[in-house]
Structures are given as C-alpha cells and as structure tokens.
Amino acid sequence: MALNVNRSVQDAFYRYKMPRVQAKVEGKGNGIKTVLVNMVDVARSLARPPTYVTKFFGCELGAQTNADVKNDRYIVNGCHEASKLQDMLDIFIKKFVLCEKCENPETVLKAKKGLIGASCKACGHIFTLDMRHKLTAFILKHPPEKEIESQGESVTKKKDRKEKEKNGKKEAGSDENQDEQDDDWGDDEVDWGEDTSEDAVRKRMEALSGGLGGLVIDNDLEKPEVDRINIFHHFVKNKVQAGALTSVVQKEILSEAERLEVKNKAPIVLCELLFDDKMVKEKQIIVNKNLFLRFTHENPKAQKYLMGGIEKTVESQSAVLLPRVPIILKQFFEEDILEEDCILEWSKKVSKKYVSKDMATKIHEKAAPFITWLKEAEEESEESSDDGLELEFDERAKISKLKETSAEPEKAVVGAANGSAGAELQEDAEHDNDIDIDDI
User: Fold this and answer.
1) Contact 379, 359 (CB under 8 A)
2) What values do phi and psi take at 330, rounded to 5?
3) Which candidate, 85, 201, 48, places its Cα nearest to that of 137?
4) What structural domains and CATH numbers belong to the chain?
5) What band does 211 get if pLDDT is binned at 50, 70 and 90?
C-alpha cells in the first residue's frame, strides 16, 4: 500500500506517494543486519539517492551502513523493525525533502562551498538546509549527481562518466544538466577542494544574508562527553562574566546544555561557576534558584549530579563551607531545588566519585544533623496524616450535622518534637556560628 510522502497530509488523493519501507533481518549475533529491500524504490519516490536515506538511518540509529549500489543492496547493521524505519523516514523527509515554505516534496538539492541549498519546483522557494545534522557532512562529500545513485546504476558507470567529463567528452545531456547547474549557482565551477573545516564553514555561514548567519554546522555531538562538558563550561563562564543571568540568558544556558546532551550533568558545572566561599553569606543558592530549577525540576538524575557538585564546591572551600553543610543542604531543600528523596538517598552511602573518601566522610558527618531532622520531620508528617477523626452527632440541630474533632491533641512544631536532632544541632552550632536547622 502506497503512503503519502508527507504523512501529515491525510488527503487520499494526494499525488505524492511512496512505497512502505520493507526490511529483512539477516544473520545473528554480532553479524545481525537489516536489509532495506525496496530502498531504491523508496528513494526514487523522494527524488533522493538511496545512499542518503540509508546513511540517515545509520546516523539516527548509531549504526554502520553498507551500500552496494550495483546490486541494489542497502544494509543497516543491527535488528530494526520496518515500522521504526518508516517513522525515521518521516524525519528524513521533513529535513531533506519537503520545501520549508509549501511543504511539497518537489525540491532539488545543490551542494557548494560547504553548504547545501534546496530549490522548490512547486513554489520557487530557495532555502538552505539545516547543517547541524550529521547527514549533511555525508551529502557534502557525496553531492547529488544526475540520476546514477537514485536509479541504482553501478559505480563503474559513475566512474566512466566522470572519466569522460574529465577528458572533455561529455554527452549533450550532461552538458545541458551542467548549464542548468551553472545558471542556478553562478558561472564559477564548484571547488570541492575548498576548506571545509568547522571554522571555515562557520565564517561562510556568518557571511550569509537573510538571517541565516547563526546557522552553523554542529559537529559537537560527535565529540566525547568530556569535551562537550568543557564546551558547556566555557559557554556558561562567558555568560557569567558578561553580567546578570537574566531569564533570557538562563534559557540560552539550558538550550546549550540540551544541544550538547549534558543537561543532567550540567549542575556540576553550574556549582563550580556560580558558588564560592560566600555561598551562604551572599545567599548564592537563592539568587540562582531559577537557573538550577530549569535543570533539576522533576529530574532525579540532575539532582543526583547536583549533590556531586555541592560536594566538589565544599571541598574547594572546605575551611568556610564544610561547617555550613547543614545550612547549604537546607537551603537547597527549602527552595525545592533538591527533593527529600534525593537527599536521603545520597545520605545512605559515602562515595568518592566526586571528592576524596576522607572529604566525603566529613561532608556526610556534618550533614548528619540535617539528615536526622529531615527523617524525623518526615515521620512526624506521616503520623499527622494518619491521625484518626471522630465523628459526633449534634442532636440539637434540626438538620443532621457532622462535627469533626481530632482524636489527639495538636502536634507541637517540628523543631520542638525533634529533641534529639535539636540537641545535636545546638551542640554543632556552638562551634559554628550558632547554626540551628529550625532557625535557618
């Protein structure tokens, strides 16, 4: 059954159709692979080389691909369902086939000087593709050519044609095709030996008009996580040095973390750049509350890494911050940056993942009064919620009324009830500027 090329269009009479992707799994174990049975037909309906679609699947799945053009055999390593590949094909169509203006698939790609342009035959719109996807690098290395790959012809024919062109023995049809290309992109011949380094491409992108200057090739995701975290560190450092972290700047920081796929570990970087020995005195936690919430709200993983960032910050300023660990944790807790479950889970085990085992032990010892207070407060809350209610009937009323009375006297405030925790905190406060959890 044929599908609409743009599957968001529900019109049964939509004239742009494509066959459904057919996939066949072969091999087993480490040698298992998925053969795209009808890739040539699918690619022809999209007017794109089958190698582009196959390589796109490989980029999205993180798998190696193999294209045997001569035998029309296109392979993606691993076991992949046809339905999943069909959904991925929709993404390819949206990014590399449909016109961004009229959303018709009548677009033609042109590659030149590190950029990929597209022109729509339906509406005449000309635009530049988003160069951040990994497939764009493959397209630049294998630019669109006539119909060789889309028709599934052999590599030998492709090489023969190139050889004829090199010797000046082009056929008339080839000459006409080249003239059309020259008309669209200028009279100068494309120089595929031009510098395609990241900096060179970025400079060329900045020179573009029409608001496309900010569009750059994003190769950062191909780098190791450590390098991506360093890139994020440099980005945030520049923002901090530039001035106040307004709401707009905070959104930019969050977007950069998401772009680099380091959102969960970002709080470690934020702790390093936003906190110092005046962390408590200048209320730096409260000042930066909104920024941290963008990362930790309903995100247990980010909260876990934030605990690691707190440990590293305390270690770097241990003389001042180590005695104030209870205050620091309580501020994070009261500002809803850290949830109770995360703190209690952290308290169960002393880890040397972020700091030395000795320092981690000291931090846990200093945090003990706050942890005790937190546990007893939780128990007190559970007891209060479990209190029974007695129902009394008031016979004096003409209409039946239910009076609600508590079965137990009202509970004292948490601080008064937690005698043992209060005693420990009071003893600790005598050695550290009168710290009292209930008075923080």
Assistant:
1) no
2) -65, -35
3) 201
4) 3-153+188-206 (3.30.30.170), 263-439 (1.25.40.180)
5) very low
4/17 Cα distance (integer angstroms): 5
- Residue 18 has what pLDDT? 93
Identify the band that residue 107 occupies on the pLDDT scale cut at 50, 70 and 90. very high
With H, G, I as helix, E, B as strand and everything else as coil, classify residue 47.
coil
Half-sphere exposure at residue 414, Cβ-oriented, CA atoms within 13 angstroms? 19
Rounded Cα–Cα distance for residues 415 and 432 (Å): 19
Phi, psi for 247 (deg, rounded to 5): -60, -40
Q: Residues 6 or more apart from 121 whose CB is under 8 A from it?
A: 106, 107, 108
Cα(53)–Cα(58) distance, integer angstroms: 9
| 240-249 residue pLDDT tens | 999 888 999 9
Q: Which two tokens stand for residue 241?
A: 């040095």
According to DSSP, residue 317 is labeled T
Q: What is the pLDDT of residue 205?
A: 54
Residue 336 and residue 91: Cα distance in Å, rounded? 38
* DSSP-assigned letters across all residues of 364-381: HHHHHHHHHHHHHHHHHH
Show Cβ contacts of residue 281 under 8 Å, excluding neighbours closer than 6 positions: none
Nearest to 41, CA basis, from 89, 94, 103: 89
Can you say how many angstroms the Cα of residue 437 is from the centroid of all Cα atoms in its chain? 38
Residue 410 pLDDT > 50: no
Q: Which two tokens stand for residue 401?
A: 């009324």
- pTM of the prediction? 0.44
Check the CA dihedral 28-30-31-37 and report its sign: positive
pLDDT at 143: 87
